[in-house]
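Thread: quick sanity check before group meeting

JM: Hey all, I'm pulling together slides for Thursday and realized we never actually wrote out the predicted structure for the chain we discussed last week. Dropping the sequence here so it's in one place. If anyone has concerns about the input, flag it before I start.
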Amino acid sequence: MTPEEMVIGACLLTPDSVRFASSILEPADFRSATHAHLFHAIVQLQKAGEPVEPFSVWTKAEELGARGVGVVELHEMLQRVGSSESISFYADQVKEAASRRKLSAIATKLMREAGDETYHPSQAAQTATEAIKNIQAGTSHRMTTKTLQEILAVEEDHDWLIPGLLERGDRLILTGFEGGGKTTWIRQMIICMAAGIHPTTMNMLEQALTVLVVDAENTEAQWRAQVRGMTTKAASYGSVDPAPNIHIHAKGRIDITKDATLGEVHRLIDEHRPDVVAIGPLYKMVSTGINNDQEAAPLIMALDSLRDRGVALIMEGHASKGNSQNATRDLAPRGSAALMGWPEFGFGLHPDADDPDKTIVTKWRGDREAGRQWPKELYRGGPFPWTGETVAATTRQQYYGWDKQEEERTAW
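JM (edit): ok, ran it. Output follows.
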């Protein structure tokens, strides 16, 4: 008997085995279309609380389109299986064979698309990667455990890009009302990272980071006008000139939920190998709104496919309508509530009512890991537009005393 027949026979012998098999297999995992119909029939009967025995399964399978099998064959499977205790073993064999067939189909499709000059290689690679991930998700059906002792025996393992602040895979969404300085702070952070400067403490990093910017709102002209001063300052203070380490696509609105566009962003990641991807604003990266979880899901899936490349994501979002006089309004991202629980860090900027040169950094999402060096307040002044309370006194003195005449002459 084949593993597929053993699974069906075990389900007929002991209907309680159906729940074990169905936790591992789907009808599409069976190579034989007839066996797929039989398993589908068995699962439906079990869910409906109806008898799972040869005649009822044969009747149901015929309703589902099964051909070429009779009640006699089902009785033979039942009699020959002997025991249902090995149902999980045979189900695993069926699943493994199905995974091999799927991998073969993916490889064939990838080779065909690789030879098609009208199909971009990065899009073909991304499609294949997603298909392989679906296979991996389907084969990891077994829940396993570890003892607490095993878990505690593993040393803390951080894949830091910026120690104490940002790891690979971290997702940060920054919100605030229009004109509140969030775009400026994001630009300041990525310019500092690319110059080898810690973006919130202003201390030196061990090495400069590479950043990819996908700006769906601003133009190249706006970038030239608004970051020239910051870039010059960072080049003077940092370990390297940040400009060559920042790669910018600024061509306006995109729809990252479309395969072609997402494939292009993956191609840019392949080309530039960034540590950090700064992308947004979120509402200008979809063709529709982000008003509910259904609309947010494709955007989140697309962004997570970028995150899976080992980069940190820094994203700009918009809070609900308001102005500087309404500083206590909800600063969570406008639209779906799904965006609130998704990132590792969610901050909103709003001005201090008593100090026009001070902005409060409000958490609208609790940090998944406490102790990161994000500031709670930002102040205007110093060599960069924003200075946080996270800057040490000695570093602050160094910054405020650095090139004082030029600092006073330059208006940010």
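AS: nice. The longest helix spans residues 87-114. The two ends are 78 Å apart (CA to CA).
JM: adding both to the slides.
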